[in-house]
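Sequence of Short-chain dehydrogenase/reductase family protein (Favolaschia claudopus).
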Amino acid sequence: MSSPPKFTLESTGEEVAATFVDEIKGKNVLVTGTSVNGIGCNSASIIAKYANLVVVTGYNEERLKLTEEFIKKETPTANVRRLVLDISSLSAVRKAAAEVNAYPEPIHVLISNAAAAIGPFKLTVDNLESQMATSHIGPFLFTKLIANKLLAAGTPTYVPRIVYVSSEAHFHGTGVNFETLGKPDKEKYHPLETYCQIKSAGVSMAMEVSKRSGGKINGYSCTPGVVLTNMNQKPESLEWMQMIGVMGPDGKPDYEKFKWKSLSQGAATVIAAAFDPSLNDAPGTYLTEDSVADNTKRAAHSADPAQREKLWSMTEELVGEKFIF
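Predicted 3D structure, token representation.
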């Protein structure tokens, strides 16, 4: 692995993208979960300044139009394509994946950012727990179904990438609860524990997809840091954010206990994971909030090979699809 550029907590997505502009040029990038005032939208907007194509996703056209308007306000010449994707629904995932597979272009980078808000127990149309379905099971199926689009972007000098947006929260707990993964139990559900589980799953999948693809696709995971987004301001999330002290009693960020980052600073690590060429020889790497590759900050339970393999095989069973490269 070559020497990586030096970034800090204050580095912005614009700075990181400018550093890797040669890697971004000509690339087609798909970002899931791109609502305005979110890390996905901000990452897509910055990448769109240089990329050949940026595909943005959302669960309805109205939200997608707002995202496209946001991006084109910054870069009027940006090539933006909207994709309706309700990633919590397996049938909706299949429909969106079919649309992507009909694109004439390959996909060089998939940024798996979509997530459900931390909140009360809720089942999806597939009778899966909402957070787990939106942040792990749906994305797993989507990735599987469009894998050929990623593989088509590979060349002798370029390996396609998948970036899993995780969190330092993945360190808490013991990883995914396999007992409730496909059999949600309201009595055993805890919003914050489930959040930690899905962030652990992202770290595991980055390593496992790298291993199983045999070098055809490189997976990376990252934590963007503590960022004020549309997600953690939702009413159903606020009480839990206050419980762990991230948000104060007044519902505003606690700047004394936590180092808050702007949306652009949060996007910095995502963009580094997607384009930093120093990571080429280190698939499965975890990037910290200052955009530094540091696998010592990766939880042992998330990296455990047996846990990763079990999570992969159980998720295949849940979606009814074998993920074979």
